[in-house]
Design brief:
Helix content is about 60%, strand content about 10%. It contains 9 helices and 5 strands, in the order E-H-E-H-H-H-E-H-E-H-H-H-E-H. The protein has a 5-stranded parallel β-sheet, sandwiched between helices. It is globular and about 40 Å long. The protein binds adenosine-5'-diphosphate.
């Protein structure tokens, strides 16, 4: 299975990504986690990444692609991937499509998790004290939601036009969201979209 999760901060894409990976056997690739791991190395690139993340700005496409391409390539060879937080810009989406074509694979679905902005803000503020993340402060959360709306939002029509968007209401308990995604993906299997 090859999926991507398209979701604003707080929608639960990390949780759902892990569950979908366990369910499908595909590898969970979380862009934010990979970038945070690189940031912790405190090299020149790591410090640059940490600064973007702390502000809630997107890390430049070129850096993201350099980190993500090997992970996606490896997962594609091992039976699939759940991309969590990548692609997040239109240029990243184009690059991801080119990479998939090079690898001879196609994306089965782009799962869009949506929830009202007040719900997302409340969830992020609630978990802020335990996340230990520099970007979980009220100001940065507001900015991350704005960046999602402006820069990542256009991927919703992009994948709708390609016929693979699966929109799921994320304003429900985690188990219900997982169940909804699985039902929708199983529907795709029955209509033969999955190989
Ligand atoms: P959230 O979606 O809650 O903001 P993530 O861990 O997915 O959490 O992302 C955290 C930060 O990592 C983003 O604000 C951004 O700085 C960086 N990031 C993650 N994925 C990408 C990406 N595909 N392109 C650019 N920056 C990214």
């Amino acid at each position: 299975m090859r999926l991507l999760l398209l979701a604003p901060p707080g929608a639960g894409k990390g949780t759902q990504g892990e569950r979908l990976a366990a369910w499908s056997g595909a590898q969970h690739i979380a862009a934010g986690d990979l970038l945070r791991a690189e940031a912790r190395t405190e090299g020149r690139l790591g410090r640059e990444i940490a600064a973007y993340q702390a502000r809630g700005d997107l890390v430049p496409d070129q850096i993201v692609l350099e980190l993500l391409t090997p992970a996606v390539t490896e997962a594609a060879a091992l039976g699939g991937y759940i991309l969590d937080g990548f692609p997040r810009t239109l240029p990243q989406a184009t690059a991801a499509a080119e990479l998939a074509a090079r690898l001879g694979v196609t994306l089965d679905a782009a799962v869009y998790l949506y929830a009202p902005e007040e719900v997302l803000t409340r969830r992020l503020l609630d978990r802020a004290h335990q996340s230990g993340r520099a970007d979980d402060t009220a100001d940065v959360i507001r900015h991350r939601l704005q960046v999602f709306a402006e820069t990542t939002g256009p991927l919703v029509p992009y994948y709708t036009e390609r016929g693979i968007l699966v929109a799921v209401d994320a304003d429900q308990p985690p188990d219900s969201v997982t169940a909804d995604i699985q039902i929708r993906l199983s529907g795709l299997t029955r209509t033969g979209t999955f190989s």
